[in-house]
Amino acid sequence: NKARMSDIHDAVGKRIAELLGAESAMVTSGATGAIIVGTAACMTMGEHNKSERLPDTSHMANEVIIFKSQRYIYDRSIRAPGAKLVEVEHISEVVNTINDKTAMLFFLLNRPDEDNIDVNAYIKIAKENNIPIMCDAATTVPPIRKISDTVNMGFDLICYSGGKGLRGPYSAGLLLGRKDLLKYAKQHSSPNHRAYGRSMKVAPEEYLGMMVAVEKSLQFNEEEEYQRQLKIVDSMGKNLSKLDGVVVSAKIPNAEAREPYIEVDWDEQYEISPTKVK
């Protein structure tokens, strides 16, 4: 039996939304793809005459507010469909920066403490001004429960990588959020022939792969996996520390994310060949 791509898209999105407690969901071409179609959705809000003109956004709300401290390499994904980034340094500046050209507020979730930003206050500002707020949470999983926690924070759109902690198709991703915004985001996505994101295709096996990845992740024993990773880090550290001039230390940068790794320092006066390391 054959199935239409649009039907697969909708059915998988519905299932993932149910699993994660989101209002709506869709599979995208990675977290970057999620940012692109999500931003396009917030600028066009379902108006086809605006959608047809992307990336020309001169006659629509096209500004996205972002904290200066949160500028990063992937914010080019926000600019890709024609959005213009407007920087603020402190949350006190946000309200006065909002105007009739503001299409979206943006937040990078993996480092709110580092950036000293009151995320709840930021979300409240978005709600009070009726402006969608997008969150890039691509690197915040594991643990899988953080997805539902983030959904409940009140973001209108949330972007995730399909690979990394979800262990799904590396070329896929997720966009979760408001039902109306997800509907508009789908208009900018394949298989729609005239969509801005037509080139960012998602194959049937990626749709299904993401659904299975979410299902499996919810059943995954994260404590066992964490202990397994600690053993690997410990074993590598013991072997590397046998080399002259090498100092090894185990690092756990985020206790909740639980992603241990090894930091290796060596004295350059010691000559260490690849053969000796092996």
From TrEMBL:
Its cofactor is pyridoxal 5'-phosphate. GO terms for molecular function: L-seryl-tRNA(Sec) selenium transferase activity; pyridoxal phosphate binding. The keyword Lipoprotein does not apply. Keywords: Pyridoxal phosphate. Gene3D superfamilies: Type I PLP-dependent aspartate aminotransferase-like (Major domain). One of its GO terms (biological process) is transsulfuration. InterPro entries: Cys/Met-Metab_PyrdxlP-dep_enz (IPR000277), PyrdxlP-dep_Trfase (IPR015424), PyrdxlP-dep_Trfase_major (IPR015421). This is Aminotransferase class V domain-containing protein. It comes from marine metagenome.
